[in-house]
Queue: 4 jobs
Job 1
Amino acid sequence: KNEVEQSPQNLTAQEGEFITINCSYSVGISALHWLQQHPGGGIVSLFMLSSGKKKHGRLIATINIQEKHSSLHITASHPRDSAVYICAVSPYFYGGSQGNLIFGKGTKLSVKP
Amino acid sequence: DTGVSQDPRHKITKRGQNVTFRCDPISEHNRLYWYRQTLGQGPEFLTYFQNEAQLEKSRLLSDRFSAERPKGSFSTLEIQRTEQGDSAMYLCASSPSYTDTQYFGPGTRLTVL
């Protein structure tokens, strides 16, 4: 079993729909990251969070530490949101995080006009 | 801030050849990471530097792989006697010591024929 699991693997939505991508993890973490990867490989960090909720524009990320679960929401989705969204965690080590990430396999989102 | 750069962007080589990739992190970022990503999968951690010290190596990093960061600035990843299974995207990321947020380069896509 992977330490970071994402669902769904693939998601197709119509423009304007509300989108949710889920992430569950099984290790102790110091932080959870949501990343966006466009075709061609470039990865951009969207959020880093260790508790609660963060919002940036139409993107909202939440985390429940007790349940080891996080969600990424996209409101009013747009075709330019089409990308692979990756959940990753910074595993916790005694003495502090070393910073390396453990990644989920990603969710491929396609938003149709 | 010019971002993380990687060179080359693409490399095609024949099985058995040696290849070397370069990563230039964001200046003053003392942490540098190498990841490998195969098609349809999330990135996997390979190795991590803090300044010039290589602090962690994944067991994915066989003895054919070596990484250096001689002056704590740019880093190189060398693969000796390449195999077809080495075909992947090799990603470099950097971060300052005060945050786990990582900034990714565009990646080097390696194809081993």
Job 2
Amino acid sequence: QKEVEQNSGPLSVPEGAIASLNCTYSDRGSQSFFWYRQYSGKSPELIMSIYSNGDKEDGRFTAQLNKASQYVSLLIRDSQPSDSATYLCAFTGANSKLTFGKGITLSVRP
Amino acid sequence: DVKVTQSSRYLVKRTGEKVFLECVQDMDHENMFWYRQDPGLGLRLIYFSYDVKMKEKGDIPEGYSVSREKKERFSLILESASTNQTSMYLCASSLTLMNTEAFFGQGTRLTVV
């Protein structure tokens, strides 16, 4: 089983819609979870981190963590064309590795 | 602002050469990472280091080694470059391993011919 799986993409949503990005992980010892955004030709940058079960909101972004089901998701409300990028989930496992998913490409149509 | 600087943006090397990729961070971070990024494969961890002179293998360490003689510098070494090591290499650093953001360098596009 792969350590982290992201829902297949690419994902295309109209401007103003909610984009939902999902990620599952296999390491039950994982403690820290992150969502990174990567624009084409650029390096990843952190947009959200979440450490405990439940929701965490930051502006238009909401991260959701469910450790029992081993998934983490990212909701982007009122999607904007500037949100078009690749989104990478990542987690720090019990062995302290920072592991990334393959990423999902989001396209927001004007 | 945290700054992670990689020594080269683009690099072209010949098969069999020994290649050094350098990474320097200026925020006294404990941890440093080397990843490679390939289309369809995402970011894959090569090696990481949580302290000076300490290193841990990541998911794809074969054909690579690392060196961390000083806290701010983490070097990735391709012992004998091969064409399948053509990739984008990304260095990152973080304050602690568990709960803090990793900051990335600008990346090095390595082509092995």
Job 3
Amino acid sequence: KNQVEQSPQSLIILEGKNCTLQCNYTVSPFSNLRWYKQDTGRGPVSLTIMTFSENTKSNGRYTATLDADTKQSSLHITASQLSDSASYICVVSASKTGANNLFFGTGTRLTVIP
Amino acid sequence: DSGVTQTPKHLITATGQRVTLRCSPRSGDLSVYWYQQSLDQGLQFLIQYYNGEERAKGNILERFSAQQFPDLHSELNLSSLELGDSALYFCASSIYGGALGDEQYFGPGTRLTVT
């Protein structure tokens, strides 16, 4: 069964600290993996997209890693800011066209406190 | 700003009623996707249209329907509304039809409250 699981479900960290969010998936055949940031009540915004051959990709203070062998990805946030408070969603795409090949995790709710 | 617009922003209606949500994709995007996000739930894919035709269907109820018009805007129709239909409804658009690496850009969402 194609599934995407994220952990932790929620996380509270102090401003300036680093954190790592996890995404494990069983989607097959794998095409790509995306991390989205979703502020409360707003639409998700893409942070990174990684294909099978990529194992690290950065976007500013956000760095995503992918281990296609173990089917795991992580999103590392460096020097967190209050504006990083949001839900982070992992989305895995299977190797087919059409949107029904997208599998969404339920997200990690990150709260950054001063 | 993603370039995807959705109206209305908020909608409050009663059970049993029917509502229409509207989405305008980014300029040049041919695909429109609809998603439902209930409170503290993940995004649930409902349906996709590509250049006016239905392309893919997800967990869309029979009470819900959608269409994409020649100018590429899309409408999601929700009928016989139930309390459980209260949710955020997002529209996203992409250039192509969901091909590999086809980035989706999300609109700001419509918050539907059924009382």
Job 4
Amino acid sequence: DAGVIQSPRHEVTEMGQEVTLRCKPISGHNSLFWYRQTMMRGLELLIYFNNNVPIDDSGMPEDRFSAKMPNASFSTLKIQPSEPRDSAVYFCASTTSANEQFFGPGTRLTVL
Amino acid sequence: LAKTTQPISMDSYEGQEVNITCSHNNIATNDYITWYQQFPSQGPRFIIQGYKTKVTNEVASLFIPADRKSSTLSLPRVSLSDTAVYYCPLSNNFNKFYFGSGTKLNVKP
């Protein structure tokens, strides 16, 4: 298996633009997580899905952020409009149990 | 979900045993203690998980006292390649993890 796949790996955009981050979880995994990592706040859980259904989005910073999981093999995290303070590394992870999450390589987002 | 507290950083030398502690005073009955390792420009990677007492695998040991309010990750004979950030998130049946800022381990030659 190729592991969790994220795209793009790097994204540079201007303030006000829409940004869409993509994630393909490991085949067979039924839970998917989106995290954000910054120097100031560390690694924060934004939202997680179980069997394609959003279970907890309490970590989503504000209405500018939205996440979808239309099927078991694909998820998106959208920021609209983007702001400089959204600059961070965004990770996607998937798992089948409470034991071990498998993380993707991350998307480094820079909002100018 | 209970939060965890770790030292911000630690230094060690090659060949030494390193023990990294994690405090989780508000751990819930159904929380498991999990340790992850993260290298620069990579996502975190699972190291070990436990509920109580001691757990050992090929790369580390995890010590958990009876009250479960803390845990210690033990890395035997570290090498330069063990330089990384180490996290101790708690997880429960709903798979939620709180990672925090972790402990940056710097292994020196």
